Amino acid sequence: MTTAQPLDVSPTPLALLLLGREADARSERGVECPGDLPAPSDPDLVARAAAAKAKLGDKVFVLGHHYQRDEVIQFADVTGDSFKLAREAAARPQAEYIVFCGVHFMAESADILTGDTQQVVLPDLAAGCSMADMASAEQVAECWDVLTDAGIAGSTVPVSYMNSSADIKAFTGRNGGTICTSSNAERALNWAFEQGERVLFLPDQHLGRNTAVRDLGLSLDDCVVYNPHKPNGGLTTEELRAAKMILWRGHCSVHGRFSLDSVNEVRERVPGVNVLVHPECRHEVVAAADYVGSTEYIIKTLEAAPAGSKWAIGTELNLVRRLANRFAAEDKQISFLDKTVCFCSTMNRIDLPHLVWALESLADGTVVNRIQVDPETEKYAKVALERMLALP
Predict the structure, then answer these.
(1) Cβ(202)–Cβ(250) below 8 Å
(2) N or C end of the chain, less CB within 10 A?
(3) Phi-psi category of 364—alpha, beta or left, where left has phi over 0 and alpha has psi -120 to 50?
(4) Phi–psi pair at 372, nearest 5 degrees
(5) Residue 110 backbone dihedrals phi, psi, to 5 degrees
(6) DSSP helix/strand/coil, 17
C-alpha cells in the first residue's frame, strides 16, 4: 500500500474570504474580524453595551436596520431601512462615531453621506449582502462594453438599487444614472426614461421587473435578464436593442424564497388573510399579493390596519416577528408568509457580542472595523446618490 502524498494546493482568494481569513474592502463576502469578542453566554452583555454607549454619549450614534435582532435593535438610536439610516447618519454631524448595525453596503453609504470627521463602524465585517455581491465592478464594466458594442450604451441609463456596493454606485454616477430605493424605484425609472431609451437595472432583477411592469405599465417582454456568467450576458444584440429594461441577474436570498405556492397555501389556511410583500419578491408573488411595498410601507400599512385583520408578510423574519409582537395587543394577526424560517443570515452576523466589542473598543479610544470608501469612488457614488435625492 502506498502512502498518500499531500497535495500541493493553495486556497483560492475566494475560499479564504469565505473562511474569514482574508479581507477585501470591495467585497460583501465575509472578511476577518480581528479582536476577542465577549462570550455570547455572558449574562452582562446588555449592561456592558449600555455602559459603553453611555460612556460615549453624544460621540456615538447607533443605527439599526429593521432586519436586525431584537437584542441589537434595543440599542439603536434610530431604526429604519438602509437609505433612511444613511440619511439619519448624515444629519448627525456632531456624532464622531456612527455604529451601523446593518450590512456592508449600508455602512459604505453612510460613509459617503457623512462628513470627513465622522467614522463609520460595522460591528462585524462579515455582515455582507449576497445580492450586492452578485454584481462586481468588473462584471458591470464588461456589461457596459457589451452595450457599447451593441451601439446602445449612449441611450441606456443605469439605475442601481441602494443594495449595491460603493463601486456599483460610482459606476452609476459616472454614467449618468441614479440610485433608487424600494420606495422610490418608480420615480427613479420615470426619471431614467426621460433621459434615455432603456434602463440597465442593477443588481436586483425582481425590483426592476416589478416596478417596470406593475408601476410603469411595461410588459414582461420589454424586460431581458443579463447574466454576467454568460458571454454577452446570454443575450443577442437584437434582444438588447429591443429591450426597455435590461435586468441584472441578481436577487435577494430572503425575498427570493417566497413562491406562488406560499401565497396560495396561506390563503387556504387563513381565510380573509391580506398578503403583503416586499417588491424584491418574484414577479408571480407580487402579482398574487394584495399589497406590495418597501419595508417602511409594510410597517405603515400594518399601523393603519384595523383591529382583527389578518396579515401574511413576505419579508425578513426578524421584522415580521417584531411586528407580530407589536400589534398583538391590537388583535392584528400577523404571520410569516412562508412556513420555512428565513432570517437574513448576513444581517444576523451583527449580534450582541459584536456590538459590545465595537462599543467598548470605541469607549476605550480604539476605532475598530472602520468602513472607508476611497475618495474617487465616493465622488461618483455621491453623484448618483444626490441624483436620487433630487428626484421629483
Answers:
(1) yes
(2) N
(3) alpha
(4) -130, 125
(5) -65, -40
(6) helix
What is the C-alpha to C-alpha distance for residues 392 and 385, in angstroms, rounded to an integer? Answer: 14
Single-letter residue type at 319 = L
Burial of 261 (0-12, 13-18, 19+ CB in 10 A): exposed
Query: CB count, 10 Å around CB of 31?
Result: 21
Its pTM stands at 0.86
The CA-atom distances, in angstroms, between 392 and each of 113, 169, 179 are 20, 20, 14
pLDDT along the chain (392 residues), means of 10: 50 48 53 68 92 97 92 94 84 94 92 93 92 94 98 98 95 97 94 98 98 97 98 98 98 92 95 97 97 95 97 93 94 90 78 96 96 96 93 82
Whole-angstrom Cα distance, residue 253 to residue 2? 46
Sequence-distant (≥ 6) Cβ neighbours of residue 219 within 8 angstroms: 213
H helices within the chain, ranges in order?
A: 13-18, 45-56, 70-73, 82-90, 104-113, 137-149, 166-174, 185-195, 205-210, 237-242, 260-269, 283-288, 295-304, 317-327, 352-363, 375-389
Read off the amino acid at residue 85: L
> Residue 69: which H helix or E strand, with range?
none
Phi, psi dihedral angles at 226 (to 5 degrees): -90, 120
